[in-house]
Write a structure and sequence with these properties.
- The protein is built from eight helices and four strands; from the N terminus they run ααβαααβαβαβα.
- By secondary structure, the chain is of the alpha+beta class.
- It has a domain of 156 residues: NADH Oxidase.
- It has a four-stranded antiparallel β-sheet.
């Protein structure tokens, strides 16, 4: 272990600086909802460049997510190299062929047909960036009390949601791609054993003429219950 661990008996606190919207919570929350309601998952990307600074800002936004014991058990591996993207696509499509022709049951395939997915994943080479999110099964920070991590899936899931929201706010589109199994990503990207692939997110601009399925989101009364309903 490197660095000096913090003394657990003397936690350090600083004054909270609340974020002010300049308007009412009702107005601000409604506006944020209206912005996110325009977010859509896409599968046809433009090869229009996206700056590294933009991706860094998205990852910084994701890194503000809460996490168990503040362990921040995530790693965002941003891939822009064409050769690496090609290798990821080849490995992902191999797994997808196994899924579509061997592992998925008929009902699952019918559900997927509604959104137009298949084993072909050209977006893995077209999108200017592939952001592969890994969950850390141990804390490798230089300053740490222990290498234990807590609520890893919950913590990383929240961070991913914030990344996707940040990308949308930046005028970009994303896709939450989950080839299964995803272990090949560890091999291709040469990540250590304690980093486990969690999600693969192509990031970029939509292709010209991009279309998306005509899907409807569940209304509020189907996704929210107050008290005991």
């Amino acid at each position: 272990m490197t660095g000096t661990p913090m003394n657990p008996g003397t936690p350090r606190f600083v004054a909270h600086a609340p974020y002010g919207t300049g308007t009412s919570p009702e107005t601000a929350s409604r506006r944020f909802y209206e912005i996110l309601d325009r977010r859509r998952t896409v599968r046809t990307f433009s090869n229009r460049p996206v700056s590294r600074e933009t991706i860094e800002n998205l990852v910084l936004a994701a890194g503000t997510a809460p996490s168990g014991a503040n362990k921040q058990p995530w790693r965002f591996v941003a891939v822009q190299d064409a050769a690496v993207k090609k290798e990821i696509r080849a490995a992902a499509e191999a797994e997808e062929r196994e899924f579509y022709y061997r592992r998925a049951n008929e009902q699952w395939l019918r559900d997927l047909a509604a959104v137009g997915t298949d084993e072909h994943k050209p977006f893995l080479e077209v999108a200017p960036w592939l952001v592969v999110v890994f969950k850390l099964m141990k804390d490798d920070a230089p300053r740490r009390l222990s290498d234990q991590v807590y609520y890893v899936n919950e913590s990383v899931g929240i961070a991913v949601g914030m990344f996707i929201a940040a990308a949308h706010m930046a005028g970009l589109v994303t896709l939450t791609h989950t080839p299964s199994p995803m272990k090949f990503l560890s091999s291709v990207l040469q990540r250590p054993d304690y980093e486990r692939p969690f999600l693969l997110i192509p990031v970029g601009y939509p292709a010209e003429g991009c279309t998306v399925p005509d899907l409807q989101r569940k209304p509020l009364e189907q996704i929210m219950v107050v008290d005991r309903g």
